[in-house]
Amino acid sequence: MDVLIVGGGVIGLGSALELARGGATVTVMDRRECGGESSWAGGGILSPLLPWDYLPAVTNLTQLSGRLFPEWVERIADLSGIDPEYRVSGMRVLPPFDAERAVQWCAGHNVRLEKDGDVLWLPDVAQVRNPRLIKALRLALERMGVRIVEQAEVTGIVSTDDRVERLDTTAGSFTAEHYVVAAGAWSKKLLGKQGVQLDIKPVRGQMLLYRAKPGMLQHILLQNGTYLIPRDDGHILVGSTLEDVGFDKATTEEAGAALHARALGMLPQLAQAEFIKHWAGLRPAAPDNVPTIARHPQLENLYLNSGHFRYGVTMAPASAQILTNQLFNREQPLDVSNYKWPG
Ligand SMILES: Cc1cc2nc3c(=O)[nH]c(=O)nc-3n(C[C@H](O)[C@H](O)[C@H](O)COP(=O)(O)OP(=O)(O)OC[C@H]3O[C@@H](n4cnc5c(N)ncnc54)[C@H](O)[C@@H]3O)c2cc1C
């Protein structure tokens, strides 16, 4: 089987890994460099922020990914020689929250939760360091013989009634047996008339980065949508905003100041940390955070793996597995009807 994947973010690269492991000949194409968009910009928390706020379609996918992650990341690290810093650092949730709902949901979903005064403690929440994960994935793929084509922007999908014939790009035309679109926030735009039924759009998220003494913060800290993520070497990420501003990746002073003030309120010692950087990324937003992982309703060799919104890193291994099972006609580990292509 010969597969061309458009989009070299965590979803496209993750899909490539799984397909190549299954024996497919895979090419990944990106209009710039792989991993330069949302997958680089994100925080790398491997759980929905308040998991009890989401539909079963999200929970099923994130819990399957949670089970796959340790082995997935180990494989990537072994192949690449790069440690993506997968760490089970736990998450402390500061009030306000609906404690009763949280306790009930966690009990029903086999998720450990402890109450420590007015703080919720989720000891099993893990994280990964996005830029390292992407770098490791890319290298792992190259070592597996996956072809990576960068600086090639897909500009047209040429099809008959039931099949894609070729992709036109700024680097010429490409053909394959199967095509997978994993172009994040740009997926709908790229698909043009083949994607009119989809509801995937960019939602901007701004992040701040600080350098602190290692150990200043041991766990992920979350309050009212703002989170702090500590890395091994003392870096602390603060995120994030949710802004419906189209394909605009600019940062704003107001958002930076608001994130900084909220983070200081949650961790006053952050005042001693050095401010490093402020950036923004565009999440591929879909309603209720439910992605599409499916074949096109008419074009039998076109697939989509996109719309992972706030949790694309979390959902990457499970989404790749589901996509690969579809291409290879294998049994699925869960009900995938929620991820079908509308229309
Ligand atoms: C601030 C922020 C914080 C986040 N925090 C978390 C978190 O803590 N945990 C979590 O799980 N998720 C988080 N996310 C969400 C997560 O980053 C995304 O869901 C995920 O990265 C989506 O991956 P993707 O591969 O679909 O998209 P992307 O990483 O955006 O990749 C899409 C790729 O497609 C390419 N492309 C687009 N158009 C074309 C074209 N025409 N031709 C060729 N290539 C094209 C782009 O260049 C890009 O490389 C966060 C996101 C942001 C912005």
From TrEMBL:
Q: Which Pfam families match?
A: DAO (PF01266)
Its GO CC terms are: cytoplasm
**Which superkingdom, per the lineage?**
Bacteria
Print the keywords alphabetically.
Oxidoreductase
Q: Does the keyword Glycoprotein apply?
A: no
Q: Which GO terms describe its molecular function?
A: oxidoreductase activity
Residues of the signal peptide: none
Q: Which InterPro entries does the record cross-reference, listed alphabetically?
A: FAD-dep_OxRdtase (IPR006076), FAD/NAD-bd_sf (IPR036188)
* Residues covered by the FAD dependent oxidoreductase domain: 2-325
What this protein is called in its record is: Glycine oxidase ThiO
